[in-house]
Amino acid sequence: MKRLAAGTGIVAALWLANGLLSGSLVPALGISPYFLQVLCLAGINIILAVSLNLINGFTGQFSIGHAGFMAIGGYSSAFLTVTFGDRIRAALGFLPEAGQNGVLLLTGLTVGAILAAIAGFLVGVPSLRLRGDYLAIVTLGFGEIIRVFIVNIDAIGGARGLSGIPKLANFFWIYLFAAITIVVVSRIVNSSFGRTLIAIREDEIAAEAMGVDTTRSKVISFSVSSALAGIAGALFAHYLMYLNPNSFTFLKSIEIIIMIVIGGLGSITGSVLGAVLYIGLTEGLREFAQYRMVLFSFLLVVLMIVRPQGILGHWELLAGLPRRWRLGVDAPPPVRG
Amino acid sequence: MSTFLQQLVNGLSLGSIYALIALGYTMVYGVLRLINFAHGDVYMLGAFAGYYLSRRLQGSEPSLTSALIVMAGAMLTCALIGVLIERFAYRPVRRASRLTLLITAIGVSLFIENGAQLVFGPDPKFFPSLAPRADVRLGPVRFTSEQLTVILVSFLLMIALRFFILRTRTGKAMRAVSFNLDAAKLMGISTDGIISITFALGSALAAAGGVLIGMQIPKIDPLMGIVYGLKAFVAAVLGGIGNVPGAVLGGMLIGVSEVMVVGYLSSSYRDAIAFGILILVLLLRPQGILGRVQKEKV
């Protein structure tokens, strides 16, 4: 009951914030479109970072192809809304326009998430069966292959990109799904299944000896993470109304890794902070774009040497609050000695 | 038939480059159990070192001596770079978790790629020709002089490496470190020194690959190491990671299959082939063709 109330409260607050920020409720309060766009992209990156942290930070398996799953979600949902959008709208004729948009977006998100999860499953099964760093190299290859395929498929625009995607996502939808992602990941991490993930991260052999089906746990964690990346991709597509294969290069995957490493591997708060910080720095340092990646990569190496657990480590913001204020969000247990 | 033989030759010459890079991956993996993501970028630096050296030497006619100087210079430069990378990036985190090591490697790789774009400029550069060109015909098959050089030089280097690993004291120490680092240390082997030597050797071979590719496809750019690095890594996994002859075999197989698919099927999925092979290897024989299953010890 309390959770339901909290959830409704969050939705209402987001709805209100969306109205205020875009200036549709009180025109004087509308902020500049540029800033609103940066905020929305930050929200999408929060989804990406938190979901990648599930596999990289909590399960301890290194994936460097997150952008590939984002691309799958983005392209499949956009293909759906572009091709079948009118028919779905016609079937929903009884709803007001906002309702039609919502249903259409949710359909796209669902399809994107499911396809990304399937891709995650297919990539995960051969590579997660093995111990070691195979996931890293397979996901790296996978991210590039997805791009090769997208460039070669003409129905989704090929190298020209896919344009004419309806603008269905906005601040409200993006942050709603950012909130959902945070809740989903934190609930997973704090479940008994989450404990098996953390056990795998800490010591895979010991986890197996305790009866954890490590392959199964890793594959589930990876598929969930991919599905969430697919949602992020779908939101990205329906927010910017245009997709280009070049948005999903290896560099995008690396950006997400930098976010979670800066914030703290194994901290949801850290991922959120890392995503916001990264977008903030990227926009702030726009004039020095060519030095930016040199700086970030240097930072990454130094951080690994000086503080390998990231800035926040395993610390969580809500963990310090009394239980009833945590909205179901808990800190993962501090395990690593 | 003659097209097939021609494709085979093209494949072998591409495969020799993959093999040279794969050797570095496999040797470093052998001693540190680390996927050295920066290795592909060291290969790129080798190509650029060769480019700047040969520009320096320009004016003199392309001759064997200048080609040798360029090759040796690039190999030395990259050996030094490899040692520096190990000393300042990998050694401090060697005892940390694998994830830390892997992220460090990615960081180094990104740093080199972006640094190179700043220093060399992002545009491709054209590698000057180092040796007089002449084609050799063997029946229906035509070898360009570049292809011949690539195949010959890489085979010479691989034989030299094999001799070094199997016949010298340092090579023996290297095998010991790869077998068990702690035990090797207890036997009085300077493991830090051996690891440095491993990085130097692997990087020098990658640099040779970089110069050779510069001679063959005369276009080089700061991001060329990514794709070649990935494919060479797949070659190392295919042959059995940690296994030196396996890396050569894997490189040849990847090179030949890539050229064959491009020649007979389609070129648009060129970069997808290595990845498909990788998935198959992981499903069917994760230890690679020549690799042995390693028992996991607690």
- Give the tally of β-strands of chain B: 4
Query: Separation of termini of chain B?
Result: 54 Å
The helix/strand class of chain A is mainly alpha
Topology of chain A as a string of helices (H) and strands (E): HHHHHEHHHHEHHH
Task: Enumerate the strands of the largest sheet of chain A in spatial order, edge to edge or round the barrel.
Answer: 1-2
Overall mean pLDDT of chain A stands at 86
Describe the largest sheet of chain B. 2 strands, antiparallel
Tally of alpha and pi helices of chain B: 11
Q: How many helix segments of chain A?
A: 12
Rg from Cα of chain B: 19 Å
Question: Brief description of this entry?
Answer:
Chain A is mainly alpha-helical. Chain A has helices at residues 2-22, 33-58, 66-91, 97-128, 134-152, 171-189, 192-202, 204-209, 214-240, 250-263, 268-284, 289-306; strands at 162-163, 242-243.
Describe this structure in words.
The complex is a heterodimer of chains A (337) and B (298). Chain A has helices at residues 2-22, 33-58, 66-91, 97-128, 134-152, 171-189, 192-202, 204-209, 214-240, 250-263, 268-284, 289-306, and strands at 162-163, 242-243. By secondary structure, chain A is mainly alpha-helical. Chain A has a two-stranded antiparallel ribbon with strand order 1-2. In chain A, α3 (66-91) packs across α5 and α6 packs antiparallel against α9. In chain A, 50% of the residues are buried. With 298 residues, chain B is mainly alpha-helical. Chain B is globular, with a radius of gyration of 19 Å. The mean pLDDT of chain B is 87. In chain B, the strands form two sheets. Chain B has a two-stranded antiparallel sheet. The A-B interface holds A 56, 60, 62, 64, 126-127, 129-134, 136-138, 140-142, 144-145, 148-149, 151-152, 205-206, 250, 254, 257, 261, 265, 290-291, 293-294, 296-298, 300-301, 304-305, 308 and B 35, 89, 92-93, 96-100, 102-104, 106-111, 114-115, 117-118, 226-227, 230, 233-234, 237, 268-269, 271-272, 274-275, 278-279, 282-283, 286, 296, 298.
